[in-house]
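Incident log, structure service

09:12 report received: a user says their structure output differs between two submissions of the same chain.
09:20 pulled the input from the user's history:
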Amino acid sequence: MKKKQEIITFKVDEDLLKVIKNIPNRSGFIRASIMAALGSICPLCNGSGTLTPNQKSHWDDFAVGHVVKSCDDCHERFLVCQMDRE
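09:34 re-ran on a clean worker, output below:
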């Protein structure tokens, strides 16, 4: 038996509407975009952009042996474990 699909609506501003208005399969595009974004959510803050006090405490413990660096090629930030470099 096929699962029932739910309909979700959301508001967009005029600029976004202009961009997506002429996409042939807008629903498919939006579904694929949401799934792609969900695969990129920060595993620590779960996409909120902030840490709870308990998460911050765990992060502080973790950060003792790790540093955040920037890639020379793509300039994105990434974590480096300092434990192996003693």
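09:41 both user submissions now match this output. Likely a transient worker issue. Closing.
09:42 reviewer note: Residues 26-38 form the longest helix (13 residues). The beta strands are 66-70, 77-81.
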